[in-house]
Write a structure and sequence with these properties.
Elements: H1 8-12, E1 16-18, E2 21-25, H2 39-56, E3 62-73, E4 82-92, E5 96-105, E6 111-123
Antiparallel strand pairs: 1-2, 2-4, 3-6, 4-5, 5-6
Length: 133
């Protein structure tokens, strides 16, 4: 079941939540000057899956916002690759969540990046429940 919060930034960049995994098939506009996939896309995918995974563990009146994100780039992605990002919550406290993430290339499973993050647990600013699809 898709449980990700709707986010215009992700939609604009072709980043899609798919059963607990974030995926993106890369295009020319995702490339850096060296022809690889821009690190900003990779870090955005990791941030999205890590925050989204935390949100799945929270009641609807709470959200998770990135407090700290460290990304380690291990190999380059190429235009046309479908990238997959997944995450594991290592510790979920009352105010902070500690999360690990990884990003792989779908075609061969090659690990392209890893991440660790800390997410602050906050009260949603409105009484409306989290938008989920």
């Amino acid at each position: 079941m898709n449980e990700a919060m709707v986010a215009p930034f992700r939609t604009h960049n072709g980043i899609v939540w798919d059963d607990g995994v974030v995926r993106c098939t890369t295009r020319e506009h995702h490339a850096n000057v060296a022809g690889g996939i821009h690190g900003g896309l990779i870090s955005s995918m990791l941030d999205a899956v890590m925050g989204g995974t935390v949100i799945l563990h929270l009641p609807s009146h709470q959200a998770a916002v990135t407090s700290s994100l460290t990304v380690n780039y291990l190999a380059a992605g190429r235009i046309g690759d479908t990238l997959l990002a997944s995450a594991t919550v290592r510790r979920l406290g009352r105010t902070l969540a500690h999360v690990d993430g990884s990003l792989t290339r779908e075609s061969d499973g090659k690990l392209l990046a890893t991440a660790t993050g800390v997410f602050a647990i906050v009260r949603r600013p409105t009484a409306e429940p989290l938008v989920r699809h």
